[in-house]
Design goal:
The complex is a heterodimer of chains A (517) and B (205). With 517 residues, chain A is mostly beta strands. Helix content of chain A is 5%, strand content 46%. Classes of the chains: A mainly beta (517), B mainly beta (205).
Chain lengths: 517, 205
């Protein structure tokens, strides 16, 4: 009896994780989960590419799968109010209707062909509110200011492959009511790729190749009110680069790729005014407080300020060219991601600025909720200096910019800052900084200029707001890991393992088979 | 058969057998590829038998299976690919069976038989995405239970030593085994079924 007893003891002792059997190799081609998570007010939603599922992750409820009725999600877009998420996806169907066909493999074995149906679904509180079949090429979403409607369209510049099934109508935009999920298609002209809404969401301004349309949204008929050709010569292709509406919604400002002309479209009088800028702009911002627009240029050390009554330009010369703008309610924060170390706080009414000199060139800028502080992520640069300056130049950093006192404080980071965010409590302004390959989340007390670390379960790769005042940290863990941080207490709740959903993947079912029959 | 079983309780046993066996069940389910590249869920176990009437033996068996794999899945964010830490998947199974064996021909050298067993399997799925850490939060364990059956044909192999009170014997059998789905909820399910092969050595007394 000695041998069986020993076997039994060995069996019982092998129940832990210390000595898991390893006789084989197993791998999959697709990631188990996509770290580009979507944080809504109710939970965080995560794509699971390998299993074709959508996980809902909550700090206290744990994780569960959202029933998408067989839809394999491929892209998530959060509604602006964070109350819902638009899910793009697809599911397979078989051309044969033999009752024996239950899976993709059955279909192929019985000489059927698999067809992929594309669909968009609206998910709220973990459940599908509505869904509708769409063409494969829709890949972009624009939202009304109140978040009540979404416009689905093709963004040719998104960089993703544009999938065409059969013959696709690239002229359509789909308007989706985010309350009911109802979808209305509207033909708007070839390749609409930018959609804006006026202040009261009564009109949509649609930019397509060479023309601009205005669609009324109040009647429910989505009638095209105005159609502007940007060029009267059909041989001349005018490619809009950026578009913005003036604060009163009367005018649309359109910049054109590689052109120093600004198209000012009067949406009420249906006329076009072309305003010459100092150069082809790289960024444009409309400031509603000063009722002015700002334009900056990649290779020109100047900023143009456009007033919205007579549309006259005032040019302010700078020391260095800037290519980025952050609006500061009556002011603009200008900076460059092209290796320049200057930053400017521009007063729009007085056309004057205060100049700041950063220690290293910025790669990103984040404003505090009350716009009194900014955090710049600065990157290493080639240094011709020595001593402390050379050391600064060689390192990543975070620079705290006081937008009230116009001063800045450089901090050196041990590795690349991946993301920064401000906490909501204005009384004790705090910023969170995620560092690459680090299990520490840095908390910067911006009043005292001190830093402390919160330890994470695994290195972080992303950061987003969650709920009113909390944050969700995306950790680098193969089976999925999210850490929910309450910045007031420093308490972290981690939820992991959601990416193992569907890890035991059998034959691929045809999910809508029963419905079709 | 019921009468035979009843008689067995009224009359003294004619033979008892005990053996250590290797048992393997087919696992062609694609989901099992997560655990093992091979399509077999194999392990070691024990088999005991009690001959209740000549040629008819009541069988009981238990076997333990431990299969696992290094698991690799890319974790991608934007255009960067993060190298994953070492992950593992494993399935630890305990399979119990109860049934009968009917020896078609009694022979001291080779005694062919047919057998049938009802099975119960308890399968524990274990997943771990960081083997270097004992306290990894993503150590996931899920348990499922599945009933099933097996039918097989085989032979008891002896050495012709029928006169000995304790005789060394071996057995080998092949057949079909079928377990209901091991359902792990959101993790998925395993359907273990197909060819079953058992071979063992032991004693008859």
């Amino acid at each position: 009896m000695r041998t069986p007893s020993l076997t039994l003891l060995l069996a019982l002792g092998a129940c832990g994780f210390e000595n898991l059997p390893d006789q084989s190799y197993s791998g999959v081609d697709l990631p188990l989960w996509d770290p580009d998570v979507v944080a809504l007010n109710d939970a965080v939603y995560v794509l699971l590419p390998q299993s074709g599922e959508l996980a809902r992750v909550h700090p206290t409820e744990g994780w569960s799968l959202v029933d998408l009725n067989g839809l394999t999600p491929s892209r998530l877009v959060a509604a602006p109010d964070r109350e819902g998420v638009i899910v793009f996806g697809s599911y397979p169907t078989c051309t044969e209707t033999d009752p024996k066909i239950q899976t993709v493999e059955d279909c192929e074995d019985l000489d059927g062909e698999i067809e992929v149906v594309h669909e968009v679904a609206l998910v709220r509180n973990g459940a599908v509110i509505s869904s509708a079949e769409i063409a494969a090429h829709f890949n972009a979403v624009s939202f009304t200011n109140d978040g009540a409607q979404a416009a689905l369209h093709l963004n040719y510049d998104s960089g993703a492959d544009i999938e065409v099934t059969g013959v696709s109508d690239l002229t359509q935009v789909l308007f989706m009511d985010l309350e009911s999920g109802a979808i209305t298609p509207v033909a708007v002209g070839f390749a609409a790729d930018r959609i804006l809404f006026n202040a009261d969401d009564s009109k949509a301004v649609v930019l397509s190749r060479g023309e601009v349309l205005v669609i009324e949204l109040t009647s429910g008929d989505y009638d095209i009110e105005v159609r502007f050709p940007l060029s009267l010569d059909v041989d001349v292709q005018v490619r809009p680069q950026d578009v913005a509406l003036t604060p009163d919604g009367t005018y649309a400002l359109v910049t054109v790729t590689g052109d120093d002309s600004l198209y000012v479209l009067d949406l009420e009088q249906e006329s076009i005014n072309i305003v010459p800028l100092s150069s082809a702009p790289t960024a444009m911002v409309v400031d509603p407080v000063a009722d002015r627009s700002i334009f900056v240029y990649q290779n020109l050390a100047a900023v143009d300020i456009l007033e919205h009554d007579l549309f006259e330009i005032e040019t302010v010369l700078l020391d260095e060219p800037m290519n980025q703008i952050e609006s500061l309610a009556g002011e603009g924060l200008l900076y460059s991601t092209a290796g320049r170390k200057d930053a400017y706080v521009l007063n729009l009414a007085e056309a004057d600025y205060d100049e700041l000199r950063l220690e290293n060139p910025p790669s990103a800028m984040v404003l505090s909720p009350d716009q009194t502080l900014a955090l710049a992520i600065t990157r290493p640069e080639v240094s011709g200096s020595s001593g402390l300056d050379a050391w600064y130049d060689a390192n990543w950093g975070v620079e705290i910019i006081d937008l009230v006192d116009r001063e800045n404080l450089p901090l050196v980071a041990e590795s690349e800052p991946l993301a920064v965010a401000f906490t909501a409590e204005a009384a004790t302004p705090t910023a969170l900084v995620l560092l690459a390959d680090s299990t520490d989340l840095m908390q910067l007390d911006l009043a005292r200029r001190t830093a402390s670390a919160v330890e994470l379960e695994a290195p972080a790769i992303g950061l987003d707001r969650f709920g009113e005042a909390n944050f969700v940290i995306v950790n680098n863990a193969p089976f999925g890991l999210l850490s929910f941080l309450d910045p007031a207490t420093g308490e972290i709740t981690s939820v992991g393992g959601f990416a193992t959903a569907g890890i035991l993947q059998g034959e691929q079912p045809l999910p809508r088979l029963a419905e079709e029959e | 058969m019921l009468c035979a079983l009843l008689l067995s309780f009224l009359h003294p046993a004619q033979a008892t057998e005990f053996s250590v066996e290797r048992a393997a069940l087919g696992a062609a389910d694609p989901a099992y590829n997560t655990i093992d590249e091979r399509d077999l869920f194999a392990g070691w176990g024990l088999r005991a038998g009690y001959t209740v009437v000549p040629s008819l033996t009541v069988l009981g068996s238990w076997s333990m299976q431990r299969r696992g794999a290094s698991y690799d899945a890319p974790l991608v964010q934007a255009e960067e690919s993060y190298s994953a830490s070492e992950s593992a998947t494993a399935l630890l199974g305990h399979t119990a069976g109860l049934g009968v064996k009917w020896n078609v021909l009694e022979n001291p050298w080779v005694s062919p038989y047919v057998s049938g067993q009802g099975l119960v399997q308890v399968g524990t799925l274990k997943l771990d995405d960081d083997l270097d850490r004992d306290d990894n939060i993503n150590q996931i364990s899920a348990r499922a239970i599945a009933p099933g059956f097996s039918v097989a044909a085989g032979a008891d192999v002896g050495l012709g030593l029928e006169e000995l009170p304790v005789r060394p014997m071996g057995h080998v059998e092949i057949g079909y085994g079928h377990l209901a789905a091991l359902d792990y909820g959101d993790l998925g399910a395993l359907h273990l079924r197909g060819l079953i092969v058992r071979a063992g050595v032991g004693v008859h007394f």
